[in-house]
Amino acid sequence: MTSFTVNFKSVQSQIIHCTESIEIRSFIERYLINSSTDQATVLCDTNTGLFFSENSGINLKELQIGSRFIVPAGEEHKNIFTITKVLEFFSQSMKTRDSLLVNVGGGVVSDLGGFAASVYKRGIRYINVPTTLLSMVDAAIGGKTGVNLGHIKNQIGTFHFPLAVLIWPGFLKTLPEREWGSGKGELLKYSLLGAGFSPEEIAAGNDPDAFGQLIRKSVAFKTKIVAMDPEDSGIRMILNFGHTIGHALESEALRINIPITHGEAVAAGIIAEMHLLQHSELMEDLMEKTLHTYHRLFDPAPVRNILEGDPSEWILHDKKGKGNTILLPVIPFNGSSIQTCPLTADQIAEGFTFLRRYL
Ligand SMILES: NC(=O)c1ccc[n+]([C@@H]2O[C@H](COP(=O)([O-])OP(=O)(O)OC[C@H]3O[C@@H](n4cnc5c(N)ncnc54)[C@H](O)[C@@H]3O)[C@@H](O)[C@H]2O)c1
Question: Class of the 2-228 domain?
Answer without folding.
Answer: alpha beta
